Structure formats: C-alpha cells, structure tokens
C-alpha cells in the first residue's frame, strides 16, 4: 500500500516530469521547424502541434490508464515521421528534434509504470527511432551512431528508474516515520487520557465516599444526622456515574443546587437564573465547588457557607466563602488531594483555573472557566 509521503513524492515527480515534457516538446519542436526545409516546414509544424495537443490532454488526465499506450503510439508515429520531418544532417550531428522528445518521454515513463512496462515502452521507442532514422538516412542505413544513441536511451531509462526507486524508498522511510510518530502520539494521548481518568476517579472518590466515611470515622458527625443517608446515597450516585452525568450544554446553576442539597452544612447560593456551559466544564465547576464546601464543613468549623456564581466578561466563576479561622495555603502537604486534585487539577483539565485565599477572617475558593 502506498503511503501518503510516497504518493505525494510520486505526484510531485510526475507533475514536474510532465511539465518538462511539454517544455521539451515545445523547444525541440521549434528547433525542428527551424531546421526543416521550406517545403516541409508546414508538415513539421503540424506534427509538433499534434504532439503539443497530446500533452495538453495529458495535463487533464495524467493518471488515466490510456496515457502510457497513448505515449507509446505517439513515439512510434514521431519516429516514423523522421524521413519527412528530420533533415539528414540532423541525424549525423545528433540535433534530431524527434530524438530529444523520445529520450525525455521514455525517461518520464519510468515514473508512471512498473519495470516490465517501462522496459517494453523503451524497447519499442528505441526500435521505432532506429527504424525511422534508418529510413531517413538512406545513404548509409542504420549507422553506428544511431545504435549508440539507442543504447544510451536504455541507460537513461535505467538511471531514471533507479532515481524513482530511490525516491520511493526514501518516501517509504518518511511514511514509516510518520506512522511511528502517529502511533506514539496516539499511545501518549491514550496514556494521558488514562491518567486523567485515574486522577478524576481519585478526585471523585476523595470528594465523595472517602470524605463521608472519614467524617464518620473521626466523629465529625454523630451518624444519625438526617442528611447523612442522603449524602451517602448521593456519593454512590456520583461513583456510579448517575449524578453529574451530563451531555451537551448543561445548566451550572442546576448542578450547584444539587451540591447545596447534599451538602453537610447550609449553603447560601447567589446565582443567575441559569448559566449554560458545556457539560465537562459545568460538571468540573460543580465538583470543585462541592469539594470546597466539604472542606469548609470539615476544617473551618462553620455551619454555613456562601456560594456566589457569576457569568460576566466572558468568564464563568464560582466563589465559595466561609468565615472560619482560615489556614496557611502554602503549608498544605502535596500528598493532600483536596485542593490540588479535586479543585486545581480538575479545573486545569477542562481549561479552567482556581485560586484559594485564606486568612483569619475566613477562606475564599474561586474556580472559573473562560468562555473564549
């Protein structure tokens, strides 16, 4: 199977060769017209015009099946016309305009055919040239110089074929390198997606069941609170993907209402009637808000937080404020995932950002996502 790089190399090579053929036919044909005696100049001009017309057709359909047979017929006819279109002196000093066209055409053919077809076309062209030249040079017949030219034409075709093989081999190396790079990119993307999924799973586990069980285990709740059963059920829904499982555009305000409903402390929410976002961003903002509310309940010794939602200047933001004693943000161990994993990394993964400010008067956690 031909790869993209090899196909492009062949396409460019064939295009330049076809352009070269047109230039050679035009220039060599002009020489032939100038060389021709006045009596045959019109006939030579007609032959040159027919050859140019054929090449115009080739520019329209360069890859058609009939191009190689058509080229072969053209070469045979050109060679057969030598007794009428090429003066004898041009045969003797190698200024034969037909020879120039034949040589360049068979060289170009090697880029459009297999080895067997290329050799066959070359053999037919050389035989036709020698026959036509022999008929034109009636004084000496097929002179030794014609044979040398024929053999050299085979050599030219061999060099052209070798160049084509080398170009295609180099292009295949490029195709293999591109395929390996694509495989590496795909593997890296898959690994990154797996790591992101693992991080999200760990963050979700940290935000839900782990936090609830830890609160019960440390005695932060008595165990008979009316909200605890609902919180445990909500944790299970999140872990099983039933809660926050959204597609398309999603109303962030609705998701935050779910966060407030299952929160262990009171949540005073100030928000527009609706804020519609892509599902991934809306869910990330809601989950980061849930973690900020849970942290306030666990560490700030408060029974109430405020949540302020804004959608202005192309940025959607959520601020969670508490009036607790605050903490030193820089002193939080790296192993703690509450802020780093459940808020910072989560927002970064969806193109958002977060900031935490804490002091003696309380803590403010801000998460935001720019629309543009």
Helices, by number, come to 12
Count every beta strand, where a strand is a DSSP E run of 2 or more residues.
7
Low-confidence stretches: none
Cα radius of gyration in angstroms: 40 Å
Described by strand count, sense and barrel closure, the largest sheet is:
5 strands, mixed
* Whole-number total of structural domains: 2
Q: Name the helicity range.
A: 55-70%
- What is the H/E order? HHHHHHHHHEHEEHEEHEE
What distance lies between the first and last C-alpha atoms, to the nearest angstrom? 43 Å
What integer is the average pLDDT?
A: 84
GO molecular function, one term: protein histidine kinase activity
Keywords: Kinase, Membrane, Transferase, Transmembrane, Transmembrane helix, Two-component regulatory system
Catalytic activity: ATP + protein L-histidine = ADP + protein N-phospho-L-histidine
InterPro entries: HATPase_C_sf (IPR036890), HATPase_dom (IPR003594), Sensor_HK_TwoCompSys (IPR050482)
């Amino acid at each position: 199977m031909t790869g993209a790089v090899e196909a492009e190399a062949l396409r460019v090579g064939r295009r330049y060769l076809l352009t070269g053929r047109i230039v050679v036919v035009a220039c060599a044909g002009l020489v032939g017209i100038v060389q021709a005696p006045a009596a045959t100049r019109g006939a030579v001009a007609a032959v040159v015009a027919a050859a140019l017309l054929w090449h115009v057709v080739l520019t329209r359909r360069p890859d058609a099946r009939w191009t190689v047979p058509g080229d072969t017929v053209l070469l045979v006819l050109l060679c057969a016309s030598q007794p009428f279109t090429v003066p004898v002196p041009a045969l003797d000093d190698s200024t034969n305009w037909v020879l120039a066209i034949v040589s360049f055409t068979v060289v170009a053919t090697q880029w459009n055919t297999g080895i067997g077809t290329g050799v066959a076309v070359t053999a037919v062209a050389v035989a036709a040239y020698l026959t036509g030249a022999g008929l034109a040079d009636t004084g000496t017949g097929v002179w030794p110089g014609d044979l040398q030219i024929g053999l050299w034409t085979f050599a030219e075709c061999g060099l052209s074929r070798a160049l084509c093989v080398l170009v295609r081999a180099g292009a295949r190396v490029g195709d293999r390198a591109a395929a390996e790079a694509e495989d590496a990119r795909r593997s890296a993307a898959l690994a990154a997606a797996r790591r992101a999924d693992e991080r999200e799973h760990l963050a979700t586990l940290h935000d839900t069941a782990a936090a609830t069980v830890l609160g019960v285990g440390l005695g932060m709740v008595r165990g008979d609170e009316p909200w605890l059963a609902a919180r445990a059920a909500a944790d299970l829904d999140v872990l099983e993907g039933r809660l926050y499982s959204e597609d398309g555009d999603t109303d962030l305000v609705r998701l935050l209402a779910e966060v407030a409903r299952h929160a262990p402390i009171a949540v005073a929410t100030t928000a527009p009637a609706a804020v519609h976002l892509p599902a991934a961003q809306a869910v990330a903002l809601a989950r980061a808000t849930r973690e900020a509310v849970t942290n306030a309940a666990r560490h700030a010794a408060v029974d109430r937080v405020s949540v302020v939602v804004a959608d202005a200047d192309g940025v959607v933001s959520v601020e969670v404020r508490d009036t607790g004693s605050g903490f030193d943000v820089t002193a939080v161990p790296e192993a703690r995932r509450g802020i780093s994993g459940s808020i910072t990394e989560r927002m970064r993964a969806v193109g958002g950002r977060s900031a935490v400010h804490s002091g003696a008067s309380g803590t403010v956690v801000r998460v935001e996502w720019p629309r543009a």
